[in-house]
Design brief:
The structure is a single chain. The chain is of the alpha+beta class. The chain has one domain. Helices cover 29% and strands 20% of the residues. Strands 1, 2, 3, 4, 5, 6, 7 and 8 form an 8-stranded mixed beta sheet that branches. A hairpin with a 5-residue loop joins strand 2 and strand 3. Helix 3 packs across helix 4. The longest helix is centred in the middle third of the chain and has 20 residues. The radius of gyration is 16 Å and the shape is globular.
Length: 220
Amino acid sequence: MKNNTRTRPSMLSVVAITAIACAALLGGNLLPGASAQRLRPQRRSVQEVGVDRGTVARAESYTRDRFDYFTETPRGARVAAVNRPRAEALRAIDQGLSDLFVAARRAGYRAGLNHADYVVFIARADRTRDSAGAYSPDMAFAAGNYAGSVYDRGGTMYAAGMVPSYSPAALVVAEHDRDFGRMANVVRYEGEHLVLYHNDRRRFQETADHTRGGAHPILQ
C-alpha cells in the first residue's frame, strides 16, 4: 500500500470519479464458482491486448501507478494492472460487466454492452479498510470539486473506482485480495457512468456529480 500522504491529484472533471460513500451497498460474498479451477492469466503486451497507450498514460496520471501487466478476462474485457491479477479478479470484472449489461438492457440501452468494449485498470489501494474497519480497498484523491462535501476527509477523498476515459470506455478499480463480490460491484457501478455517457447524455449529466445526491446503483 502506498503512503496516503502522497495523495493523487483531483480529477479534471467531477464526473470522472465516484466517491466510496456512494458505494455503501458494496460488499458480499465471493462470486459463484470462485472455488472452481483457477485460471492462469498470461502476461501480454499492450499491443496484444489492444489497449491504447494514451488511455494507459491517462490512467497512470490519475492514479500515480504504472500499469505493466496486460491481459484479458475470460469474456474479453481488456485489463491493465499493477500486478498479475488473480483469477478471481478477472471473474469479478466479467461478473460486474455482465450485471451492468443486464440492467442497461432493461433500461433500453444498446451501446457499449460487450465485455470487449471495456478496459479495466487495477490500481494499488491507498487503504484497505474504511473508517469503520471494514475491508474496503480504495484509492485516495485530492478532494478537488468534492471539497467541503460529505466525501471530503480533510482534503482527501477515497474512491472505490473512477473513470479515466469515456472513449474508449475505461474504468479503474483498486486491487482486491478477497471479497471479489465487492470488486464486481465496483466495476458494475463505475460502468454505469460509461453506459449512460454512450446511451443517455441527459441522465449521465444528472448522475455524474454525486455531490448533488444520488447513489449507485443508478440502473436498477
